[in-house]
Write a structure and sequence with these properties.
Number of helices: 8
Radius of gyration: 18 Å
Number of strands: 5
Structural class: alpha+beta
CATH class of the largest domain: Mainly Alpha
Shape: globular
Helix content: 40-55%
């Protein structure tokens, strides 16, 4: 499985927004986006960059979504093709598919402080869906699915540490969280309002449809 292993704070700086790639740490003063001298795009010649072209604006929207959900180009193209085959608006279908990723649900349900930590938990077999082990972070959940921590001391101890690290995370309306059982139930499909980053999905559709 391909994955990005470089410094993640430079990704937030490049997109100009907090992508919450380090979980609760992004809300503290340690986040580079909070420091004026580091809130510019990475690179020694960032100050020389001119006006963005139409292509550059569309590219930034696509890169922002890819980096937020932690997927690479090939995986993103597969999601876009699935969204194109959908009967609903392509942009909304794309965002819904990304929101329904298992690692995103584990993170937003408070079982992991970040999507990266959620992917590690899933890959190591600490997460069960409807009572069965699922080790694919990109697994698409459906309405009614129950995502729970494996009933093992090691798994529950890890999840408890993650819950304490995540703090008082407010779950979204499409997820029902049972903190005692460490279980998240998908009670509805996510809507456009559930996407927590500012993104213009129509620009992504325009670029990927070329």
């Amino acid at each position: 499985m391909s994955r990005y292993i470089g410094p993640v704070c430079r990704l937030c700086r490049r997109e100009g927004i907090k992508l919450m790639l380090k979980g609760p740490r992004c809300e503290t003063a340690k986040c580079p986006m909070e420091k004026q001298w580091r809130s510019n795009p990475p690179g020694m010649h960032a100050w020389r960059r001119g006006k963005s072209s139409g292509y550059s604006i569309r590219l930034r929207e696509k890169q922002k979504v890819k980096r937020y959900y932690g997927i690479l180009e090939q995986g993103f193209r597969l999601y876009f093709r699935r969204a194109e085959r959908s009967k609903e608006n392509t942009g909304l279908a794309l965002l819904r598919l990304l929101e329904c990723r298992l690692d995103n649900v584990v993170c937003k349900g408070g079982l992991a402080p970040s999507r990266k930590a959620a992917r590690v938990m899933i890959r190591h077999g600490h997460i069960h869906v409807n009572g069965r082990r699922v080790d694919r972070p990109g697994y698409s959940v459906s309405q009614g699915d129950r995502i729970a921590v494996k009933n093992a001391e090691k798994s529950r101890k890890l999840a408890k540490a993650h819950v304490e690290l995540a703090g008082s995370l407010q779950p979204q309306s499409w997820l029902q969280v049972d903190a005692e059982k460490m279980e998240v139930t998908v009670v509805a499909m996510p809507s456009r309002e559930d996407v927590q980053i500012p993104v213009e999905e129509q620009l992504i559709v325009e670029m990927c449809s070329r």
